[in-house]
UniProtKB/TrEMBL annotation:
It comes from Streptomyces coeruleorubidus. The lineage of its organism: Bacteria, Bacillati, Actinomycetota, Actinomycetes, Kitasatosporales. This is DUF7822 domain-containing protein. Pfam families: DUF7822. Residues 12-144 form the DUF7822 domain.
Length: 177
């Protein structure tokens, strides 16, 4: 079985007392936290209690702003992939699913990924939220603004790794409504 990052949406953030009442499945990605997941939790990023594991290793963020950032980068990447039907299908599937599963917040579950490093999971998530995610957001914003062509070209060349996640209403960890 692959270790995965899991992305959900919810109308409230998880807290010490409870998990959100309605959790919608967005995406899971094997062996990594992909660029797409980082961008979706890139606006209003905060570390929250996990809905799956005990340590505080979840990350929540603003849904609308994170989805808009991802859509903007997908448009920029797509400007160099106009003839790539597989990329076009990926974008269509991703954006349709985001429209269908929208809520107030994204919630990223990192437990399986951060446990692979051998480091303290909570410290890994703090670094992810304070360094890795803001760096990804800054790179994407610059690329969208036309000021980061080399980075954009590298993302375009390996778009499947960054955007080719599994989007579904049911993930390995799903929550009853």
């Amino acid at each position: 079985m692959a270790n995965r990052s899991y992305l959900y949406s919810a109308d409230s953030m998880p807290n010490e007392a409870e998990i959100p009442k309605r959790i919608r499945c967005i995406s899971e990605h094997n062996w990594d936290i992909p660029l797409a997941h980082k961008l979706m939790v890139g606006r209003g990023t905060t570390v929250v209690p996990s809905m799956i594991w005990n340590p505080p290793i979840g990350i929540a963020a603003d849904y609308a702003d994170g989805a808009a950032l991802l859509r903007g980068l997908l448009r920029a990447v797509g400007k160099g992939l106009e003839d790539d039907a597989e990329f076009a299908e990926c974008v269509a599937t991703t954006t349709a699913h985001l429209d269908k599963q929208q809520a107030k917040y994204f919630v990223l579950e990192t437990g399986e990924i951060v446990s692979m490093t051998g480091e303290d999971p909570a410290a890994s998530v703090l670094r992810l939220a304070s360094e890795d995610i803001p760096d990804a957001v800054a790179q994407a914003e610059a690329a969208i603004a036309g000021q980061n062509d080399d980075w954009l070209a590298s993302v375009r060349a390996d778009w499947q790794r960054h955007f080719g996640s599994f989007y579904s209403e049911a993930l390995y960890f799903s929550f009853p409504n």
